[in-house]
């Protein structure tokens, strides 16, 4: 296991690590401030593809965390980055919100319903049966199938909501084709994030609260992995998996002591 003293760049999950239901977790504001004041390369990662980095920066600012929008990396940005690397100046049909459509526009993609290179399924608050039907027909006609993340459900005040993974499963059942999933736990999301800030795996750490996404993807990307116990994972959850993070901390506040 690597010594944390070798770490010069940081990736961190957002919900369960820095914030919990729009309330900053202990040490989060001070950690972001330290990284910013010392010009430490870092990115805040989220599998949520609904919001643009500007939207998320405003949300974090309202909760007391000052994270610049260029320090936020979403599954939508990673998906757009991947699509542009495969087919520069390509086209896509999108089931999703502004976070996804803006990201594709920014890499020079055209959004179309006519023979797109990709069908991209992301998070949305309003899944349309008409749009899902269109996606199925386009994939059957030869468009490549991409999903921003595998999360089957998302939270809401009234309980769980069906999310990207659930809608992707519906489309897969209808087409017989599985999507290529760009977001966590695909380590590609971490590699694209590191490229964004000029970081190297040997000197980069990933802080997360989930063993099945943050930690496994961090290990597969060759990063120093830190699990915090302020989100999903507890000791029972950790014992379920055959792999281990490099460090287990009660929260990010422990990083301020070293």
- Proportion of residues in β-strands: 15-25%
Biggest sheet, spatial arrangement of strands: 5-4-1-13-14-15
Q: From the alpha-carbon coordinates, what is the Rg to the nearest angstrom?
A: 18 Å
Name the structural class: alpha/beta
Biggest pleated sheet: 6 strands, parallel
Distance between the termini: 17 Å
Please give the number of β-strands: 15
CATH C-level label of the domain at 76-181: Alpha Beta
What CATH calls the topology of the domain at 76-181 is Rossmann fold
The geometry reads as globular
Low-confidence stretches: none
Known CATH architecture of the domain at 76-181: 3-Layer(aba) Sandwich
CATH superfamily of the domain at 76-181: HAD superfamily/HAD-like
Count of DSSP helices?
9
Helix content: 25-40%
How confident overall, as mean pLDDT?
A: 94
SSE arrangement, N to C: EEEHEHEHEHEEHEEEHEHEHEHE
Keywords: Carbohydrate metabolism, Hydrolase, Magnesium, Metal-binding
GO molecular function: metal ion binding; phosphatase activity
Organism: Pseudolysinimonas yzui
InterPro entries: HAD-like_sf, HAD-SF_hydro_IIA, HAD_sf
Summarize the structure.
By secondary structure, the chain is of the alpha/beta class. It has a domain at 76-181: HAD superfamily/HAD-like (Rossmann fold), CATH 3.40.50. It contains nine helices and 15 strands.
List the helices and strands and how they pair.
Elements: E1 9-13, E2 19-20, E3 23-24, H1 28-37, E4 42-46, H2 53-62, E5 72-74, H3 75-86, E6 91-95, H4 98-106, E7 110-111, E8 118-121, H5 129-140, E9 144-147, E10 153-154, E11 161-162, H6 164-175, E12 180-181, H7 188-197, E13 204-208, H8 211-220, E14 224-228, H9 235-239, E15 247-249
Parallel strand pairs: 1-4, 1-13, 4-5, 6-7, 6-8, 8-9, 9-12, 13-14, 14-15
Antiparallel strand pairs: 2-3, 10-11
GO cellular component, one term: cytoplasm
Keywords: Carbohydrate metabolism, Hydrolase, Magnesium, Metal-binding
Cofactor: Mg(2+)
């Amino acid at each position: 296991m690597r010594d944390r003293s070798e770490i010069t760049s940081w990736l961190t999950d957002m919900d369960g690590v820095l914030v919990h239901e729009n309330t900053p977790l202990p040490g989060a504001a001070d950690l972001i401030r330290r990284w910013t004041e010392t010009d430490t390369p870092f990115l805040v990662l989220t599998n949520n593809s609904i919001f643009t980095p500007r939207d998320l920066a405003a949300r974090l600012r309202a909760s007391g965390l000052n994270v610049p929008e260029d320090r936020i990396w979403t599954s939508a940005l990673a998906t757009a980055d991947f699509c542009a690397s495969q087919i520069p100046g390509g086209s896509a049909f999108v089931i999703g919100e502004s976070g996804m459509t803006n990201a594709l526009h920014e890499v020079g993609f055209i959004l179309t319903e006519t023979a797109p290179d990709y069908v991209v399924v992301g998070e949305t608050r309003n899944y349309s049966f008409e749009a899902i039907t269109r996606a199925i027909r386009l994939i059957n006609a030869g468009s490549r199938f991409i999903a921003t993340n595998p999360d089957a459900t998302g939270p809401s005040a009234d309980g769980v909501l069906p999310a990207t993974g659930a809608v992707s499963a519906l489309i897969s059942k209808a087409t017989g084709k599985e999507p290529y999933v760009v977001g966590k736990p695909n380590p590609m999301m971490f590699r694209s994030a590191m490229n964004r800030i000029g970081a190297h795996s040997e000197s980069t750490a990933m802080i997360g609260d989930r063993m099945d996404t943050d930690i496994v993807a961090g290990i597969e990307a060759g990063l120093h992995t830190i699990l915090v116990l302020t989100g999903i994972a507890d000791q029972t959850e950790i014992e379920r998996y055959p792999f281990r993070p490099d460090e287990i901390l009660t929260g990010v506040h422990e990083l301020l002591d070293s």
